[in-house]
Amino acid sequence: MRNRFFSGLLTAALVDPDLVLITADLGFGAVDDFAAARPGQFVNAGVAEQNMAGLAAGIALAGGRVFTYSIANFPTLRCLEQIRNDICYHHADVTVVAVGGGLAYGALGMSHHATEDLAIMRALPGMAVAAPGDPAEVDAVLSDLLAGGGPAYLRLGKTGERMLHTGGVSAPRGTSIPLGGTGGEVLLCSTGAILDATCDAAQLLRAKGIRADVRSFPWLDPFDAVAVRQAAGEYEALITVEEHSIVGGLGSAVAEVLAESAGGTPLIRIALPPTSSSVVGDQQYLRAAFELDAESISRRVRNHLEANRGLASQIR
Amino acid sequence: MDSLSLARAVRAHVLRMTSTGRSSHVGSALSCADLLAVLYAGVLRVDPEHPEWPDRDRVIMSKGHAGAALYAVLAESGFFDAAVLHRHYQNGSFLSGHVSHVGIPGVEFSTGSLGHGLPVGAGLAWRARQTGREWRTYVLLGDGECDEGSVWEAAMFAGHHELATLVAIVDYNRMQSLGTTDETLRLEPFADKWRSFGWDVVEADGHHHAELLPALRVPRTTERARPRCVLAHTVKGKGVSFMENQVLWHYRPPSAEELERALAEVGAG
């Protein structure tokens, strides 16, 4: 995802002199091509995220179109007030980019896990929030961000995420994307790079006789409430999957829509518990430890469905 | 209007606005009235008829709690009708206690939380150089505000990048919320701090217009030079004897009777 983002950004920067990339001293091996090709449009602000965010607002207010970049919590939580006051309140064309969404920097520990970012960015007024699910979604989201501008937040995975869409995808702001079939019994809704585990979990569920469909939500704000409302009428249950705290992310967004809709469609939220973790491990290890790998997702969905007898009888 | 008359008018507005609105920070607003008056009467290239003119000089009031003074100087400079100033702090008004740009022509940037102005100013100055434009960027900081780490992040950035069209003006009145800067968090050697971050420092009497004028005028070109810090030595509550150097007037609005006495002292009675 990261390399896909940088190559897309550089392509845009080559034809748009107003596009500016600011990093807070991160992106070794990733920002080099951009910095070499467009040195006048590149700033390393140093390890100083508050200044980076304010700087970005200033550049944007004078006509620049700015992307700020760092790992996980640094371009977001570290300078949250600068994003709220300087960027959002002034409608500054700034996209805050965090690499290493969720547990991608697992072994580095809690400081480098982005597990509350979606909730917090979603709470900021006027901020678009995007968490693409695979490299194709990165392309789609980035082209929308380049066309429509910020304030925006872009949560990337890291590197090596597998391609889940078979072709190019289109994901205008506020839309979601179905993957594979439709018309199943349950719908797995996913945001961000955990789309791979979600797709695998759907396969496992299908193998157990549960017809599971998948829909990716690369945008959490604006949110595709229409798709959720429609799905609520078509599926027996909605399941949300996210590599993020259970507080305030995709599960909350879907719950908010359902709470204000007619009907009583069950919702199963699969996410990280709202606790700090000091467990160390790579992303795959930590996903398994927090029951966010495909096996665990599939098992948790089945357990939930079976626990709800009425629902289980409908599905069988 | 000459800068002395402008400063007098700003002080009178500030006193009336804070008294009518029952708002705080009258001392902070009086402290920087001369700085703003010299800027708007003699330094800035701005056009009140076209507040968004792309080549205008930019002013960021980083000490946003002194918003009354900024609103007053903008109104007196022709950006909007001074008759609306009495709406300061009133229900339904845009004229908030801390600076907001929404609906108020001439306000470049909204502030209130301290330590935000200098990074944004650095961005504006960087962008001027990147695009070959000749605007200057002025950031008015409080001295207490310089406790914020983000001020020094931006100072380091501006020094490193030699943003010569950026001017930080510190309203150095040596008072903050609960006491003096020396009691709270020592700033001295203050000028040396800025110098060590790569800034050209000019110290001036922040109420002496003839001294301020050359300090605030910097070249519009940016090649290989330092950003400038004007350490403006000021008096909190300046111009009103019973408000000068009193922490009380960081918080307390003048009563009707105090307003009359104060207006007389600033020459607006």
From TrEMBL, chain A:
GO terms for molecular function: magnesium ion binding. Residues 1-163 form the Transketolase-like pyrimidine-binding domain. SUPFAM superfamilies: Thiamin diphosphate-binding fold (THDP-binding), TK C-terminal domain-like. InterPro entries: PDH/Transketolase, THDP-binding, Transketo_C/PFOR_II, Transketolase-like_Pyr-bd, Transketolase_C. Signal peptide: none annotated. Gene3D superfamilies: 3.40.50.920, 3.40.50.970. This is Putative transketolase C-terminal part. It comes from Actinoplanes missouriensis (strain ATCC 14538 / DSM 43046 / CBS 188.64 / JCM 3121 / NBRC 102363 / NCIMB 12654 / NRRL B-3342 / UNCC 431). The lineage of its organism: Bacteria, Bacillati, Actinomycetota, Actinomycetes, Micromonosporales.
Automatic annotation (TrEMBL), chain B:
Its cofactor is thiamine diphosphate. CDD domains: TPP_TK. It comes from the Bacteria. Residues 6-262 form the Transketolase N-terminal domain. Signal peptide: none annotated. Belongs to the transketolase family. This is Putative transketolase N-terminal part. The lineage of its organism: Bacteria, Bacillati, Actinomycetota, Actinomycetes, Micromonosporales.
